[in-house]
Write a structure and sequence with these properties.
This protein is of the alpha+beta class. It has a single domain, classed as Alpha-Beta Complex (Ribosomal Protein L22, Chain A). The protein has nine helices and eleven strands. The strands form four sheets. A four-stranded mixed sheet has the order 4-5-1-11, covered by helices on one side. A three-stranded antiparallel sheet has the order 6-10-9. Strands 2-3 form a two-stranded antiparallel ribbon.
């Protein structure tokens, strides 16, 4: 049964410190400290690689209008439906970053990139591009992560520490009996982090499939930290288990995530510089 090789990041997810003062106050960190190195300005994406980028979702006032103009009409309509301005800003910046990065890989301006959506909302490049590029996006706590690859499906999830407190009371609904048993065996001071990482492993797999939370979370099983990330059981059997590889991610303190990749690949992780 294959276990994904974790991307080497510091601090390691197992030593995740807990709740920062910002989260204790119910606030997001205004400037997230990223742990990944700044990525190159020019990149090539071989078929055997997955590139993962993280970016802050803030913007200066003078950047908002150019960002807005870069969006499509349907993206602007989605942005306008957000009730809170902070959520609207995060959505706009996240979409602009997706367009910017996808445009780099396609060799065109980000404003020219066209998307389509699967039956459960998974984004993909429009067929008009004739490209084998695949991607996925996740965002939480003022940060977004993007995965790009070729000729394989990919899924991402990223979560901030407060979600672990919510999951603790409803784990019976989301986790299998074996997963719950493994969590119960973990020391209490590490259990909340393990619960959060477990959630991201499961959701990343569902996002790679393109079904999101439409599928029963108890219909499949993944490893529980501190074990390396791996898909352990799925309804379709061992062939499906061997098809998917999971990788732990921690692009910033107080944020953990998982990358799920169809077939094994080399993973490169970078931070985006707005400079």
């Amino acid at each position: 049964m294959p276990a994904g090789v974790p991307v080497t990041l510091k601090p390691e997810p197992q030593s995740f410190p807990g709740i920062s003062p910002f989260y204790q106050a119910g606030l997001c960190t205004p400037w997230v400290a990223l742990t990944w190195p700044v990525g190159p300005r020019e990149v090539e994406l071989p078929a055997g690689e997955v590139h993962v980028w993280c970016a802050r979702l803030g913007a200066f006032p003078e950047q908002i209008q150019p960002c807005w103009q870069m969006l499509s009409s349907d993206e602007r309509a989605r942005a306008e439906r957000f009730r809170f301005s902070s959520d609207r800003l995060h959505f706009v910046v996240a979409r602009v970053m997706l367009r910017t990065l996808a445009g780099r890989y396609l060799g065109m301006p980000g404003s020219a990139v066209r998307f389509r959506y699967g039956p459960f909302g998974k984004p993909a490049l429009d067929d008009c591009h004739g490209s084998d590029l695949r991607f996925n996006v996740a965002h939480s706590g003022g940060l977004a992560v993007y995965a790009f690859t070729r000729l394989r499906e990919v899924g991402l999830d990223l979560e901030a520490e407060p979600l672990a407190r919510l999951l603790a009371g409803v784990s019976d609904s989301f986790f299998t009996a074996a997963e719950r048993q493994a969590l119960a065996a973990i020391a209490p001071e590490r259990r909340r982090l393990a619960t959060l990482v477990l959630w991201t492993r499961k959701e990343a797999y569902l996002k790679a499939l393109g079904c999101g939370l439409q599928q029963d979370l108890q219909s499949f099983e993944v490893s529980v930290p501190p074990l390396p990330p791996a898909l352990l059981r799925v309804p379709d059997g061992h062939a499906e288990e061997r098809r998917w590889f999971l990788y732990d991610l921690q692009p910033a303190r107080d944020l953990v995530g998982t990358l799920c990749v169809e077939n094994q690949a080399q993973v490169r992780a970078w931070s985006w510089s707005h400079a």
